[in-house]
Amino acid sequence: MRVFCLSVLFALLAGCSNSLQIDDSYIASGQNSRVQYIVLHYTSTDFARSLQLLTQGEVSSHYLIGEAPATVYRLVDENRRAWHAGVSQWQGRTWLNGTTIGIELVNQGFYDGPNGRYWQPFAPAQIDALVVLLKGIMQRHQLPPGSIIAHSDIAPQRKVDPGPLFPWKRLADEGLLPWPDADAVARQHALFSTRLPSVQWFQEQLARQGYAVPMQGELDPATRNVIVAFQMKYRPARYDGEPDAETAALLLVLAGMQASR
After folding, report:
1. How far apart (Å, rounded) are the C-alpha atoms in residues 222 and 165?
2. CATH 3.40.80.10 fits 37-173, yes or no
3. Which one from 67, 104, 204, 246 is the annotated catalytic residue?
4. Does 242 participate in catalysis according to the annotation?
5. Domain ranges in the chain?
6. pLDDT by residue (tens digit) across 91-142?
């Protein structure tokens, strides 16, 4: 008898919960999207393998963009978490899977040959599709320019994607991220050519951009990896990890742009 009564009680409670009415008449003004950044990746493999890895395992991304044709596949709803960032940090925020949208582009990445490292270029149609997708995401989540970052930005000690051939300047020309003015960079470059800032200065400026970087004033391998990530984005013609005058000029101009926004 007791078991029967408990069963009836649980059934009644379940019925009550199913009939709950929620009033949506009032909308709080103090809210925004959980999404803070968009992270760009390359897949390091072909389309078939990319699709398998991103749909049948623990790794995932919100979108996958094919190479030929440049089809955009939605693999995870934007309001749900995808597992694409891993151990990551940007602008002091860590473990970015929960606050980012991940986009993977089918691209083999690089291989090391007898004449050095070869990087696969991105297909123009693939970038065209990406630009349209990015504009829609930024509008939906009301993200400011500069919210698009590289996997190498948020994990510079272990990742290099989307690599030095990714056309960041194209995204800047589309209004998707700030870009340092070439004339301003040239003026600062001339000044830094006579006297280069300290390693501590470079570390501070990189941290200001958002990178997780050591702050001990030494040019250690970790600091070089961060400089490489920055150079691949803003000076892809040479990404040797050296804290040189042009890198200093780029950092200073970008810092000025941040201050004026």
Report:
1. 22
2. yes
3. 104
4. no
5. 37-173, 182-260
6. 999 999 999 999 999 999 999 999 989 999 999 999 999 999 999 999 999 9
